Amino acid sequence: MSGRIGNLMSVRDDIKVFDVTLRDGGLCNDFRFDDEFVKALYRANLESGVDYMEFGYKSSKKLFKQSDFGKWKFCDEEDIRAAIGNKDPMMKISVMADVGRCDFKTDFLKKEDSVIDMVRVACYIHQIPAAVEMIEHLHGLGYETTCNIMAVSQANTNQIESALQMIGASSVDVIYLVDSFGSFYPESVMELAQLYMDTAHANGKRAGFHAHNNQNLAFANTIETLSYGVSYLDCSAMGMGRGAGNCATELLLGFLRNPRYSLYGVLEFIEKYMLPLKASGIKWGYDLQYLFTGQLNRHPREAINFTAEGRSDYCEFYKSLLENY
Amino acid sequence: MSGRIGNLMSVRDDIKVFDVTLRDGGLCNDFRFDDEFVKALYRANLESGVDYMEFGYKSSKKLFKQSDFGKWKFCDEEDIRAAIGNKDPMMKISVMADVGRCDFKTDFLKKEDSVIDMVRVACYIHQIPAAVEMIEHLHGLGYETTCNIMAVSQANTNQIESALQMIGASSVDVIYLVDSFGSFYPESVMELAQLYMDTAHANGKRAGFHAHNNQNLAFANTIETLSYGVSYLDCSAMGMGRGAGNCATELLLGFLRNPRYSLYGVLEFIEKYMLPLKASGIKWGYDLQYLFTGQLNRHPREAINFTAEGRSDYCEFYKSLLENY
Question: For residue A300, what are the domain limits?
Fold first, then answer.
């Protein structure tokens, strides 16, 4: 097992700050961000030294009606190009594609013709073979790839080890540990991070971490996995993301000691774009209903409904969760 | 150095859940909690298995005008008795007294005549000799005592070691690590927790931890120190406390595996009393201005003013903090 790397003063050149505001945040507003917002976020991320920016999902237009969502559910090449203007090579562009919910064989250009640098393949643990098929196809087109195994807090260690072995043998560049339900504590995430790092080391790959803030631990878990060698770190402006949200970019940037990161760009963006977005009624962030589902290691869907209904009867809600265990 | 004790499934009988809602929360509303609120909190804590409840400060009536504050700034015996009715021996009662801001020689009864069980002595590191004098006096009266050394994030390790040596040689029962500015990360707080535990072990005492949530790490830091043997854990309903607030009781109770703790009492209290308090305009909790002062290891006073003025120009504020470094 690998131990901690460096200390609180170290600079780690392998670290990649990965903005998922549009992608995970898009789950809060059906991906309806306008071009001004997207362009401003792109500029802000560049100014703050963010390494990757994820624009949304590459979803199947056969499975999802385009009129039901904003365009970042589909991330067409021309939409990305129109929103950002000239692409700056200092920051890479990513999209996410879910196993079983995208048309990966037809919807991706060759990398050389695309504005996209990386495709992140999200799957559940039983879908690993399908994820590997996607990864190999996308790798063949020239993209950087990741595999984001979701909901591992409900899988057992044997399953996770098998999954890591299959992913480790693939062409994938980065293996992502994902705390889908915000149920991990620093101690539990540290053990998994070591497991993922062992696979990454053995196969010349990197590891990443995607947190959720159900128990106010998104940032804590992120810097815990970081200290054990995980290098791709997901975050979003003001922690915007489904339910309790993600690790906040402003927390992460302020923690990193590398002078190439700076808070200002993201702060200006938050002031000008995120505060009005929040004021408009789009909801995300820590609250007790998410704490309950996190503690119980459950999908946050019931907590999201509780929030949408404007409820605050925490006790009743908690009791109902325990009854439906 | 002591290592981790137990794991995420363990029950630790030395753990004490310590509610500071009235005391640290009182800093948000000048201690103006009415008796109904206090009584309901007392009952809720009992129902949830909380071990200690702190009612406020025992402040000098010579230094502070009683008309400027609610009664929990002074914690008169008869006020505590009137608010709680019959005292339940299952939960102990605490008050805090600041070195140099209380009249400890005249304002405390003998323990046998008092409703109070514990006095927590708060001091800065240069006040340790004065704290020890207070501790010995209060110990002589029969109280349990703690020493809460504030602002240690701005002290160097030599100073902290000297302070711990002096406190270790005193009659104090519990030595508290306090993250006054919310500037500690789990890694830094782990090192200090081990230092405090070494002193505690060597002198037959316990250690405690008081967090602040400036960087959304109050709960994370609390369970990190806990895993290294710290046993007195401060928390408050909905994290109510000065500035970014404290570790939330509901997060901590949900984490602990001992069946004597239960969420319901505190949840009902939050629904019935804390939500209306928050809706009335009393302000506390994580926001970017507190993140900045936490990251910069500074007193939160400027962030508290920023909040009180209803400002949201984070960039300007951050720049002004850096200019006044």
Answer: 288-323
